[in-house]
Amino acid sequence: MPTQSDNNTVSIIVNGKAHSAWSRYQIDSDFLVPADAWSVSLGLPEGAFPTGITRGAPVQVKIGADVVMIGRIDRIRRAASKRGLTLSLSGRDNMSILVDCAAPLLTSRQIGLEEVIAQVVRPLGITKIQLNAESSMRNDKISTEPGERAWDLLHRACAGRGLWPWFSPDGTLMIGGPDYTAPPVATLILRQDGKGNNVIQLDDESSEDRSFSELTVLAQGHAHTTKKSKKLAIVDVDNASTATASESDDEDNDDDELDMYTGTAETGMHGLNARAYDPSVTHYRPQIIVCGDAESQEQMNYRARKAMADARLAGYDMTAVVAGHRTSDGRLWEPGQRIHVISDVHGINAVYFLMGREFVGGRQDGVRTTLRLKEDGVWIPDAFPKKKRKRHRKHKNKQQLGIVDVG
């Protein structure tokens, strides 16, 4: 029967061979950092450097029997001294090639988000993609700027739908956002009387420097050869954390005047804009973002909600340090989980979203995990929007979650 120590053993598998018993290790994963990273070091007092470990070699990082990350070795450092030999390795997950390398040159029209992503990542060796959202949208035009990083193009394509790209532990490129209806995986407790405490340290920080009461996104749109003119208007964007989209009440006889200022789908549009609000900011703090070209007013609404969600997200941070790398039921901590936090010291009793976590261990440091928590339900608000009930609809929605084969 495996012990708790066995469940926390970190192994680096290179060329089918597992290397463990590290004197120190660090494994970091965060939604807001494009590529997850790992580093390990090992002292070899009387041994020799292992063979078969080379830069760029594919690796699999495991904790116990669970895969944490799939990627490649970035750096190898071999040091020799009177005390013996020391081997240090570091690397990142498969997102690293998208962060480091240029995107393939492409120009396409009327292409779906899944097709855009496949054309960007397939030449770089990534073949497993999963759409983790209720729906995607088609792009009228997508093109690569010479020298543009693959990550930047991927991010730009996803931002038009209000989504985010990241890699799952098994090496699948995920496109979408979190499911905030999932139940919390654990409860963190910090009480003054010490009863039931399972947190070593708990910090939280609130700030206003990157938060805004009102955020306006401006853009212009290129001419669409396959679309006809639609009514355009300023859209107020609002939901549980920011403002929900509200349609214009203008009469039909105002359309001509509106087109004169914004243009049409056939000629291009120069007055696209959307506005979002954050009710948690109690005094007037406006911000304007110019995002260049946009496909449609719908895309502007997504961008406004995403920008306001990011601004609100930056206003609060919580950090918890816990022993071990697993929850009480044996699951590894993983970004995307929801966690219930109870602290009478801070006056907190609520559910938070796990944005990132760092595994640290070694002979001197012990085994600990740092959890980086954010306000629940704020990040990527449009991945799984609340479905509106429609009359006269008897059939079920088609399943929108699946693997996209790009091999």
UniProtKB/TrEMBL annotation:
Protein name per the record: FIG003269: Prophage tail protein
Taxonomy, superkingdom: Bacteria
Residues of the Baseplate hub protein gp44-like N-terminal domain: 10-93
Organism: Dickeya aquatica
Region ranges (Disordered): 386-407
Domain Tail protein NMB1110-like C-terminal: residue ranges: 310-378
Pfam families found in the cross-reference section: Gp44-like_2nd, GpP-like_1st, NMB1110-like_C, NMB1110_3rd
Bias (Basic residues): 386-398
InterPro entries: Baseplate-like_2-layer_sand (IPR023399), Baseplate_GpP (IPR026276), Gp44/GpP-like_2nd (IPR053981), GpP-like_N (IPR049354), NMB1110-like_3rd (IPR054482), NMB1110-like_C (IPR054034)
